[in-house]
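Data deposition worksheet. Section B asks for the primary sequence of the deposited chain exactly as it was used as input, without tags or linkers unless they were present during the calculation. Section C holds the resulting structure in token form. Section D is free text for depositor observations; keep each observation to a single sentence. Incomplete worksheets are returned to the depositor.
Section A, Depositor: J.P.
Section B:
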Amino acid sequence: MLKSIIGIIRKLPQLHSIAGELHSAAKELNKETRIHYLTLLLDMGLLRLRHICPNEYKDYRFYDKSRAARNRFLTEYCRGKMDVAFNQKYGHECRAAMSNKQIFNKLFSDFLGRQWLYTPDASDQQIEEFLSTHKQIIVKPSAAGRGIGVRKILYSEVSDIKVFCEEARNNCLLLEEIVVQHPDLSSINPSSVNTLRINTVVDRTGVPHILRPALRMGVGESITDNFSGNGIVAGIDLDTGILSTPAIGADLRTYIKHPTSGVVILGFQIPHWEAAKDMVHRAANLTPQTRWVGWDIAITSKGPLVIEGNIDTGSRTMQMTTQTGVYHIMRSYL
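Section C:
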């Protein structure tokens, strides 16, 4: 009995935090939806017991959905279970490759379509030659994700090459040739490479399937198109490669036109779509032990190329665009 009481007391700060989170979310949604505050609070509270947080409740508009529709969504809790089922039980080496850009680039070198250099393995001369050859490059931390630390470097702006080389090695930086995207995609937002996020899921027989492809687009002067970095995303029709939904941002605002360029999003045709689908199928077959991968694909004038593969693949880009879930589809592939 005493242990139970102590356990409850220890959880009080956490419970207080959850209660505050539910209160704020219910108050905000009450203003937006005109649904009664207590109705929202009770609904979110019951779903919180099933590990569904208020952010997911808002992102997927659960206040408008039936119990059956809600159960089809791949929430973060369900995503964790699917990650264990599809990836953690198998292929630890491949999993490590997806988490490290240098290892990934070696493994998928035939799909990259660009030159790159891992600075800890390079001399000062090699780093300087790479910079001077390409004039401007993209710099990436080898182990970071979500666009963190990605920046553009101009050779003309490097005042001390030895200092740059030392810092690059100390931070295990990867240098990559800049990808020149297809003019059609550049017209949407020229400052960022606007990539396709294509999830592949390998079924029990070893066949990869494409699940809810989407186009990610940067906004303003951003050089990345990451959803978590103020980017926007629109769903792609699997058969045609045409954008089939308006774009949506992490703030839940929807866009018929791109907010920077004004390009109409709905109905936009992705160039080289069939080649992009073929590429992710071939990439997925290269490491079938890693059964669920979110591929970031750039489209150039010559065709598609792989930017990176993600095993910590977000579920929001797959589901927010259409406001329909994929959990039941993923379970069917198990």
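Section D:
The two ends are 42 Å apart (CA to CA).
The mean pLDDT is 90.
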